[in-house]
Fold this sequence. Notes:
By secondary structure, this protein is mainly beta. The chain is globular. The chain has a single domain (about 5-60), classed as HSP40/DNAj peptide-binding domain (Sandwich). It has strands at about 5-10, 20, 35-40, 45-50, 55-60. The protein starts with a strand and ends in a 10-residue tail after the last strand.
Amino acid sequence: MTQATVELLAKDLDNNGGIHCPSAQADMKLWNNHPRVFLDIAHQGRAKCPYCGTVYQLKAGEVVQGGH
């Protein structure tokens, strides 16, 4: 199984500075879903889903606003 890397814009993150996986951003199909998990992107600039291995990372130059 190939692990995907999904580049995110700051506007893609929720108010907590993260995203949930599975995510529409990763173009996941219904048959390939796993339990929903919150991934904190704002603090490290990237996070890896513990279920499917998809890596979500901020696109180069993106800045998260709001004190994250």
